Amino acid sequence: MSAPNAMNCFETLTARMEGAVAIDAWLLGLGSEGALLAERLAARLPTLLPSEEGRRHAALDLYALAQGALRTLPTTAASALLSEEAPVVLIDAVLWRGETVARAVSLLRQHGVRAPIELAVLADRGGRLVPVAPTYSGGEIVVAEDTVLQLLADGEKLRFNEMRVSV
Question: What residues are paired with 29 via a beta bridge?
Fold first, then answer.
């Protein structure tokens, strides 16, 4: 079985988000892969308003958030999130069991974020352990249960790397 085409998923995801995401939304990338996608999506979605810092995307560090602070976010993002004015779109590369997304939503709520939270994923592989569904998806994929997909950037190109793990 070969890895799904990440560039095709990215083009589909971008098309689905274009015009559907609120113009004042913040794109918060989960982990390094989500941060990479948030940055690329922000560049491709011209309808997003720029923030005071000139961008509307940031990386969300779940470990730091669990330690009690939104401090890892740019000041403008943290202020906007806490003012309940800016919707949030969590960005993740692959949605599988849903635990990371559920934890991120829970932590944002614990820190006082009351804005609507949506989810955008490059690829949805099903198999949820928690009831989470993406608002925007680049596509549904099928991979073996013992396979983890890692998103890699090769210049402007994105690709998935399949890694076998013990289950």
Answer: 59, 91
